[in-house]
Amino acid sequence: MQEPPFMLKAYQESFKKLLAYFPAHWKEEFNLGYYLSTLIFLAVSVYVNYTYLDNYTVERWLQLGFGNKEWKFGNEITILFYFLFYAIPYYVTIFLYMAWHRNWDMLRSGEFWLRSFFIILVLSFDAAFYYHTPIWKSFESPAARRLGFKILGNMTSILGIFLPLFLFYMWRDRRRMNSFYGLSFKGFDYKPYVILMACMVPLVVAASYTEGFKNYYPTLKYHHIRSLEDIPIWLAYVMYETVYALDFIWTEVSFRGFMVIGMASSAGVASVGSMSSVYCYRHFAKPMGESISSIFGGYILGVIALRSNNVMGGVFVHMGIALLMEACAFYQWAI
Predict the structure, then answer these.
(1) Are 302 and 256 in contact (CB under 8 A)?
(2) Count of CB atoms situated within 10 Å of the CB of 105
(3) Which of 7, 30, 191, 218 is most solvent-facing, going by the fewest CB within 10 Å?
(4) Residues near 277 by Cβ (< 8 Å), separated by ≥ 6?
């Protein structure tokens, strides 16, 4: 049999190394009862959200319950609701892990409670961060306000996620970690992630023909900004898509970086499943297919992050898929 070309062989070897992470992880973590009970919990959560709650975000739950459209604008009660929203999947999954593995050590670990409360609070603060509202509301035209809302909304993670995580890193983890929660090009091999992206292309293209996808993407609708006067439409999209893509850096640092690599010292391999559950809930405002796929995508990227101690692969894949979805949405709109 003829040997594959050198470059192709290098990609194959890198991908095999990546796949080897999973048997090693399952040897430590796998328990059929844990996996099934976690999937049942998430399946019920997804079903309830998309069947009975009409894909509501936390802000919309608050509006339904209190009839106040201003709850989301910097009101601290929204942060509390988001904290409960993320704490439920996180601690339910942790409890299931401990119960099925008959290991309750995390309950007695102060470090586990400190780190888990901190990251859930950070995610809640970021989700409820609407303190930039006065800026985009000050723009004169509706199109400029919409563009400002979308661009600033993708930049708030710098304050909502990066800053608190960086301060925590400098306080607790700087001496024991060789990178900022896996955000490093050192030792990063991009080749297996090119293969992962190639596998995702047909799935994303197929999903782009569904009604839920068309309703949600592109994330900045043309009819919202077509009346822009100060800058060309193409420049508006370049600006928006740039900050939209860069925002996934902080998604990976928070979920795969802190919730997996940062939590591994106190939660061990349980950090992957608990992160995947929260990651699923994070997608509840998006099409149902994304919420379901985020469980498996989050798990895969979590295992890779834990075993490689690096999140750059997740950044690469996440950015690539996000921009591919946007491109497919524009294609669907054009035809």
Answers:
(1) yes
(2) 11
(3) 7
(4) 38, 41, 42, 89, 90, 92, 93, 295
Residues 203-222 pLDDT 10s: 999 999 998 898 899 999 99
State how far the alpha carbon of 187 is from the alpha carbons of 6, 178, 179, 214, 261, in Å.
Answer: 20, 12, 11, 38, 16
Distance CA(283)–CA(204), nearest Å, equals 16
Output phi, psi for 218, to 5 deg.
Answer: -70, 155
Of the CA atoms within 13 Å of residue 1, those in its CB half-sphere come to: 1
Residue pLDDT, tens place only, 68-99: 444 444 456 778 888 999 999 999 999 999 99
Q: Which residues of 271-281 are buried (b: 16+ CB within 10 A; e: fewer)?
A: bbbbbbbbbbb
Nearest to 132 by CA among 106, 119, 151: 151
The sign of the torsion formed by the CA atoms of 106, 108, 112, 116 equals positive
Residue type, 15: F
For residues 105 and 60, the model is more confident at 105
Supply the pTM of this predicted model.
0.91
**Cα–Cα distance measured from residue 19 to residue 157, given in angstroms and rounded to the nearest whole number:** 32
Phi, then psi, of 105 in degrees rounded to 5: -60, -30
Cis? peptide before 232, omega within 30° of 0: no
Backbone phi, psi, residue 176, to 5°: -100, -10
- Kindly write down the DSSP assignment for every residue of 131-183, as one continuous string: TTHHHHHTSSSHHHHHHHHHHHHHHTHIIIIIHHHHHHIIIIITTT-SSBTTB
Q: State the pLDDT at residue 134.
A: 86
**Within 10 A of 172 (CB to CB), how many other CB atoms are there?**
16
Confidence at residue 197, expressed as pLDDT on a 0 to 100 scale: 92
* Average pLDDT value for residue range 284-302: 92
Q: Tell me the C-alpha distance between 154 and 58, whole Å.
A: 18
